[in-house]
Each structure stands twice: as C-alpha cells, then as structure tokens.
Amino acid sequence: CYIAAADMEDLVSCLVCLEGIFGTSCSKDASLAPSHHSPLLQILHCNALQSWSLLLTICPSTQIKKILDEHLPKLPLMLSSDNVNLRIVAGETIALLFELARDIEEDFFYEDTDLLCTKLKALATDSNKYRAKTDRRKQRSIFRDVLHYIENGECHEETIKFGLECMYVDSWARRRTYNAFKEALGSGVRHHLQNNELLRDTFELGPPLVLDAATVKASKISRFEKHLYNSAAFKARTKARSRVRDKRADVL
C-alpha cells in the first residue's frame, strides 16, 4: 500500500484495517490491557502498529488531524505493555504523530503532554532488573530520543553512508521509512540506496550516480559542508511534504 496505492480510499482502508488489529492494545478496558495479551498477539500488534505508522508518513494533513484526535490520547496506554518492542514502537509512533502535528501546526499543543512526558521519563531511565539488560539499554536509548523530541522538538540525527554518498535520517518520518526498507532489505539496503531508483526517489536522492575517478575526487566535501547541505534539504523536504499533504487533502 505504501508503494502501490494511488487512491486515497485504499490508504484510508489500510489504516482502518491496521487500527482494528492493534486497537485492543490501547483500549481503556482493563481486561484488554496489553499485559493480558499473549506474546504472539503482542508481536502481531507491534507489526500492525509499525505498518500503520509507515502509512502515516504519506497521509494528507486532513487525515492526520483526524488520527491525532482519535489515537494520540490512546497510544500512551501501549507504553505499559510487557513487550519491549511494542513499547518502543508505541513511543516512536507517538513521536511521529507529534512531528506530523507540528508540520501542520507549528505551535501544536497536546493537553496531556506533562503526563506523557512522565511516562516517557520512566521508560528512559528504567532500571527494573526483571527486564533483560539489552532490552533496558535499547529502551532507554530510544525513549531518551522520544522524550527529547516531545520536549524540545529536536530529532536525533543518524547518518547513513553508502558508496560515496550519505543520507541524513533527521526526522521521525524519515526514520520510520528508512527502518521499514532496512527491515525488508536487510544488509542490502545500502546497495539499494545507491542503485534502486524507487528508494532514491523515496528519499529524494536523485538518479543513481555514475562517477569516474576525477569526479570522485572532486566530489569530496567537508563534513561541515555536508551538514549545511542536508540541513537545507531537510527544510525543503518538510515544506514539500506539507504541500503534498495539502494536494492529497484536495483530492479527498
């Protein structure tokens, strides 16, 4: 659906279907709390939520507004799951929703932010011995990033190098998209970033590079120049993403 769906009805239909799968993990009904779910069901909910959040990155702003109203108050309930991966995906999805909301409305305000940040701080400093050490370390790292973004609006930046190029993963939307392709392509993701036109178009990398030795030498620039270029590119992507959402909203 992320790649092939050209009809907004298909996109919305997929979102609703996925919501129906993970919805019980963010229900206020105590009997449906994540802690009561089997490990296999939690894995299913985790995969459904990941797919749902990926589709959010291509949603028009009108649809995002509806999703914010309906799901932002519910998703924090998933942070109490005893499945570390479900907790992490829920946290990343909350950060993504905040990012999409701020793309639409720069001074976006969520009335339960203080309560949410309290939960995020607890997960970012979790030292419970009954959790596996690797799980605690992974959880603390990601929830520190989530909390920092919610409080300060700054996203942790990751640099992906492939061949002579590099790509900055500098937003939650870009992070979700990159991770989706990485999970599907595994160790081959960097090769595809170099040569796959679909991925290069998705990440706005332009056509695949064909360089001779002289061009390679001339193309080397300083890390500071790369940072300035990518910062400008990030701002351009944000504006372009907003324009695309507005066009999709007109279609709806």
Task: Please summarize what this structure is.
The protein is mainly alpha-helical.
Class computed from helices, strands and strand pairing: mainly alpha
Largest sheet: number of strands, sense, barrel closure: 2 strands, antiparallel
Q: What level of helicity do the residues show?
A: 55-70%
Shape: globular
Amino- and carboxy-terminal Cα gap = 17 Å
Radius of gyration equals 19 Å
Number of domains: 2
As a percent range, the share of strand residues is under 5%
Q: Biggest sheet: strands side by side, in what order? A: 1-2
Q: How many β-strand runs?
A: 2
Individual helix count:
11
Domain Interferon-related developmental regulator N-terminal: 1-151
Pfam families: IFRD (PF05004), IFRD_C (PF04836)
Domain Interferon-related developmental regulator C-terminal: 196-249
Protein name: Interferon-related developmental regulator N-terminal domain-containing protein
